[in-house]
Amino acid sequence: MLTSKWHMHRMGLIDFWYYTNEEFYFKNGHILLRGSNGSGKSVTMQSFIPILLDGNKNSERLDAFGTKARKMETYLIDENSNRDERIAYLYLEFKREDSNIFKTIGMGMRARKNKPMETWYFVIEDNQRIGKDIQLMEHNLAISKQSLKNRIQNQFIETQREYMARVNQALFQFPTLDDYKESINLLVKLRSPKLSNSLKPTIINELLSESLQPLSEDDLRPFVDCQII
Fold this sequence. Notes:
By secondary structure, this protein is of the alpha+beta class. Helices cover about 30% and strands about 25% of the residues.
C-alpha cells in the first residue's frame, strides 16, 4: 500500500477570466508566480486555493481581505462582456510522491447574463488526467455539464457538500467533515495579507484551539494508566 504524500502537481483554467486553456505546474507542491502589480497573480491563485478544496465560491473566498467586492460570475461574464453565456472549468491535479498516480479535483461553472450561476464538480480518482485522457474543450469552447458527466460517470458530483466530502476522502481523510472544514477556515484566515492587523493574540489562541483535535478518553488512557518505574 502506498503511504507517500499527495502533492499539488498541476492546476488548470479552461475559458476562465482571461485564460482560454492555461496550465501551471508545481514543483514538489510549490509554485512561484511572478509579475507586476495588477498582472493577475492574486486572482489566479485565489481561484484555486482554497476554493477547490471544498467548492465554496462565496465572495469572501475570492478576496484575501475577506470582502464581498468580487464574485465568481464576474470572472466569466462581466458587465462589459460581449458574451451572453460562458462555461468555464478550474481543476487542481495531485500527484502521489515518487509515483505516477494522479487524482484531480475541480469544478465547472456556467454563467449567463441576469441569471444565477450554475456549478458542478468532479473528483477523478481513476488516474485519468485532464488534457491527456479527458478533454474539457471542444472547438475552442469548454464542454457542457452533461458532456463532462458522460465522460467521467460516477466521478461527476452535483452538490458542493458532496464534493467537499469526496475531496476530503480522496486526499486528506480528516475524521469528520467538520474537522476538514475547520482546517480550511484556518487556511483562509492565515492567508490574510496583513496578519498583524487582524490577528490579535486572543484570536490566534481561538484559531489554534479550534484547529487542534481534542483528545479522546482512549487517547489519554495510556498516559493515565502508565506506571512510573
